[in-house]
Specification:
205 residues; alpha/beta; Rossmann fold; 2 domains; six-stranded parallel β-sheet; 5 helices; 25% helix; 23% strand; ATP binding; transferase
Amino acid sequence: MAKLYFRYGTVGSAKTMNLLAVAHNYRHQNKNVLLLKPKLDTRFGVDVIKSRSGLTMDADVLVETDTVLTEDILDEIHCILVDEAQFLAKAFIDQLREISRHWDIPVICYGLRTDFKTELFPGSQRLLELADSIEEVKTTCAFCNRKAIFNVKFVNGIATQSGPQVELGAEEKYLPACSYCYYEQVSENHLSTPLFRDPVDLDPS
């Protein structure tokens, strides 16, 4: 039986570049890949999947809350790759789970684990509950050399924990951070008690 995979990481961890590399490898072997992305993600264009390195591919399906992957879409597909999976509804994650089971098609989902408030996205929560394989795509903190686990949101150059969970574009900028640097960035406005400093770890693993 094929598996449902969740490959998560912070912003800037090359998740989308990994996805595009997997898609390239399948297509190089003349295998059919179905590329999915949430319709709400319009940062680089409505139907464009683009990595920060500049690599791009067109999405085959733009997922909305009521999207159903029918038999004609799944016919002769060898792998399903999903970008920005954290934005998907829980019901669609359930659908991907059933596709991997009943159609024997591997489904690989890439996305953030938590938002800028360190809270799980609904789609990510369901993937953590259902995935056969959960893998971390690692990168280092933007402020030190520790492994990044959180995402810091900046508005006008100031770190914030305010705003809606899903907010694309605008003036916000998101950076990856380790736990110490995350709380250090937001502590001035949001924390009343100091945090102890973790031991320095130069190995991102």
